[in-house]
Amino acid sequence: MNDWILGLLVAEGIPLLALVYYLEHRRRMYLLEKGCMIVESPERRAERRLCNGLFLLLTGAFVLSVPALAKIFGIEVRATLEQVLAGFLIASAGLALIIGTILIIRMPLKRPGNYESHSVPEAGRGALWK
User: Fold this and answer.
1) Under 8 Å CB-to-CB from 100, ≥6 apart: which residues?
2) Which of 24, 66, 90, 119 is the most exposed, having the fewest neighbouring CB atoms within 10 Å of its CB?
């Protein structure tokens, strides 16, 4: 019983995630074709990374706690080695994203030189092909 639940999560979760990334890519390419600059602030990227990390951490915790939750409802389910490994792997990936985001926010990268004084060409074909 345990294997088909995990298989269902993987079989439907991965294509849904791929669809979300594909739609985001299409949106960015459409904006680039129209000449819009896509500037994403570091705070926005850190927020997105933190949300992804929390999602993965909670998903891993849920995968690990499925046998205990099933026992509450009177269903006899045993955790397999694959389920425990998948749960720990997912949870550790989420924890790594969260810790990485906190480290990036706390310790900003110091780059040598003054990059603010350099001019950046405008977006579009005209600036590159003149």
Assistant:
1) 49, 53
2) 119
Q: Longest Cα pair distance anywhere in the chain, in angstroms?
A: 72
Structure token pair of residue 30 = 């459409």
DSSP string, 56-101: HHHHHHHHHHHHHHHHHTT------HHHHHHHHHHHHHHHHHHHHH
Tell me if 88 sits within 8 A of 64, measured CB to CB.
yes
Residue entry with tokens 């110091």: 110
pLDDT tens digits, one per residue of 81-120? 888 898 899 999 999 999 988 888 887 666 555 445 444 4
CA distance 5 to 119: 54
Task: Identify whether the C-beta of residue 85 lies closer than 8 Å to the C-beta of residue 46.
Answer: no
- The CA–CA distances, whole Å, from 94 to 2, 99, 104 equal 23, 9, 15
